[in-house]
Design brief:
Layout (H helix, E strand, L loop, with lengths): L4 E5 L5 H13 L4 E5 L6 H10 L7 E7 L4 H8 L4 E6 L7 H8 L8 E2 L5 H13 L3 H28 L2
Parallel strand pairs: 1-2, 1-3, 3-4, 4-5
Enzyme class: isomerase
GO molecular function: 5-(carboxyamino)imidazole ribonucleotide mutase activity
Pfam families: AIRC (PF00731)
């Protein structure tokens, strides 16, 4: 089966964060590919990846980037596919620089953006988007959300028993 989601990052140092998106997609049974595509160090590779991803069968891109964080926006400017940006925490500004860089896209070039280092939510959002066209994925999303609901209800019940 061909991958439906491309997970890209600017550096292998981003892998510990982006691995969470891959894990979620795997849990939902969604095929994905994962690679390094730097907007600044390999712009030709980035252009090629973004321009060919649709014809290769990808339907969504998850792009993680830190610091200047241009990768998600640049890829979004080159493809009609939805792009989900994952801001990566940086040592100097704790990822706020990454978040602002990704979320402040100009009109006409949207990038859905999750919280700093929250690639898990990027994976879930990608699954939800795919669920629009793939009923089997939508069913798994519904089961996942029901599981979350039950976990919270159990925690609430336990807290009410023991008090604060």
């Amino acid at each position: 089966m061909k991958p439906l989601v491309g997970i890209i990052m600017g550096s292998d140092s981003d892998l510990p964060v982006l691995r969470e998106a891959a894990k979620v997609l795997g849990d939902f049974g969604i095929e994905y590919e994962i690679t390094i595509v730097s907007a600044h160090r390999t712009p030709d590779r980035m252009f090629k990846y973004a321009e060919e991803c649709e014809e290769r069968g990808l339907e969504i891109i998850i792009a993680g980037a830190g610091g200047a964080a241009h990768l998600p926006g640049m890829v979004a400017s080159l493809t009609p596919l939805p792009v989900i940006g994952v801001p990566i925490r940086t040592s100097s500004l704790q990822g706020v620089d990454s978040l602002l860089s990704i979320v402040q896209m100009p009109e006409g070039v949207p990038v859905a953006t999750v919280a700093i280092n929250n690639a898990k939510n990027a994976g879930i959002l990608a699954a939800e988007i795919l669920g629009v066209a793939y009923p089997e994925i939508r069913k798994k999303i519904k089961q996942y959300k029901e599981k979350l609901k039950k976990e919270v209800e159990k925690k609430a019940e336990n807290l009410e028993k023991i008090g604060y």
